[in-house]
Amino acid sequence: MRLLLVEDNRELADWLSKTLRQASYVVDVVHDGEDVEHALAAGEHALIILDLALPRMGGMEVLKRLRARGNPVPVIVLTANASLDGRVKGLNEGADDYLAKPFQIEELEARIRVQLRRANDRTAPVIACGDLVFDTNTRLFSLAGATLSLTPREHAVLEQLVVKAGRTVSKAALSTAIYDFETDADPSAIEIYVHRLRKKLEGSRVQIATLRGLGYLLRHDDPAP
């Protein structure tokens, strides 16, 4: 999943982005409100982590503009001002969650998982496609009960496919999901990652099907009666 972190404290932003990337998220980072517009235009994000005290354009104004455009992306607000009035205003402007600084990273990660499940109309933390299982709490895949070893890019591709299992995911959507701002996107490399994933899924009933001109589809075959 690709996240957008909007935080002007560069030390905090560096630490948060590093921690979230270690949890197999793709993370873009911007440091002021005006750059959010460019970030959103450059790629689709599954969730935004938004500080309120930002230079050039405050986080509340960023949130208002985002919702005025009808963008439904989940937003978790971070702020040093956790007053009741501040929380109510943020939620009324369209924030999905509110977290006061200082906070524990475990709590932020849990809140991220909750919002991503809601955005994908899921309540259970575990997603299964045949004997392929993705635990959104541990951020680990397993196949037939054994942990599946994946590179960060393979993980990002497979996560997109399993979250939308049974539905077609375009190559462009996969490319958007796995490349951050600091990486030159190479849509042709998606075929390489899909090939590697197919090798790792060999012997199972889970398949990544190619739909010419449309994209890829994760599916599983029921055992023969």
From TrEMBL:
SMART domains: REC, Trans_reg_C. Residues 2-116 form the Response regulatory domain. Signal peptide: none annotated. Residues 124-220 form the OmpR/PhoB-type domain. One of its GO terms (biological process) is regulation of DNA-templated transcription. One of its GO terms (molecular function) is transcription cis-regulatory region binding. GO terms for cellular component: cytosol; protein-DNA complex. The modification 4-aspartylphosphate is found at D51. Residues 124-220 bind DNA. The keyword Metal-binding does not apply. The keyword DNA-binding applies. Keywords: DNA-binding, Phosphoprotein, Transcription, Transcription regulation, Two-component regulatory system. It comes from the Bacteria. PANTHER family: REGULATOR OF RPOS (PTHR48111), TRANSCRIPTIONAL REGULATORY PROTEIN TCTD (PTHR48111:SF67). This is Transcriptional regulatory protein tctD. It comes from Mesorhizobium plurifarium. The gene is tctD.
